[in-house]
Specification:
GO molecular function: unfolded protein binding
CATH superfamily: Skp domain
Shape: rod-shaped
Pfam families: OmpH
Strand content: under 5%
Number of helices: 7
Order of helices and strands: HHEHHHEHH
Largest sheet: 2 strands, parallel
Protein name: Outer membrane chaperone Skp
Number of domains: 1
Radius of gyration: 30 Å
CATH topology: Protein Binding, DinI Protein, Chain A
Helix content: over 70%
Keywords: Coiled coil, Signal
CATH class: Alpha Beta
GO biological process, one term: protein stabilization
Strand order of the largest sheet: 1-2
Length: about 180
């Protein structure tokens, strides 16, 4: 029994390690699988960055609008506070209630705009990946790849199985308008 356990202790790691250490880049390039960094497709391709820039521009515009509203409301609040001394308690309560209702309505309106923008971002990302999927398939077919994995889910891969750069180049050459391609 001890001999069997000892043999397993020494033999099992050697059997398991053999294939891992014998792989090289040449074998990886003939692999039936490839990895693609899906996040990099969006963030590193010019086409993806153009989508991100469009969303970011809308985010900046909404932030600017929020600051303008905040400045305007602060001025109204200050004016109401100064006016308090000249108003009866009932008149002040009425004006303060109107102001509070206005603040709540504006906050609700701006929150809705932010939620719509978040939905737009998600929709645009989904549309991007739907447009890119056939291009990933095209690269896979070109190399005889049977399995495509998201690099973010892979613990380790050899350089030769990562086709992210190739897919990014195909995205930009296929999906960018011709004028954008000429300016790269």
């Amino acid at each position: 029994m001890r001999a069997l356990v000892a043999a397993l202790v020494f033999l099992l790691p050697a059997l398991m390690a053999g294939p891992v250490y014998s792989q090289n880049t040449e074998n990886a390039q003939r692999s039936a699988l490839m990895v693609v960094d899906y996040d990099a497709l969006l963030s590193a391709s010019e086409y993806g960055r153009s989508i991100i820039r469009g969303i970011e521009a809308q985010n900046v515009a909404l932030s600017n609008e929020n600051r303008q509203i905040e400045t305007r409301l602060e001025a109204e609040e200050l004016a109401l506070t100064e006016e308090r001394e000249t108003l009866s308690a009932e008149a002040f309560r009425e004006k303060a209630g109107e102001f509070d209702a206005k603040v709540v309505a504006l906050r609700r309106q701006q929150d809705e705009k932010a939620q719509n923008l978040a939905r737009l971002r998600d929709t645009e990302q989904q549309r991007f990946y739907e447009e890119v999927f056939p291009l990933i398939s095209q690269v896979a077919a070109r190399h005889g790849i049977e399995v495509v994995l998201n690099k973010g889910l892979v613990l380790m891969s050899l350089e030769g199985v990562d086709r992210t750069t190739e897919v990014i180049d195909l995205i930009d050459s296929t999906l960018l308008p011709a004028s954008d391609n000429d300016n790269r």
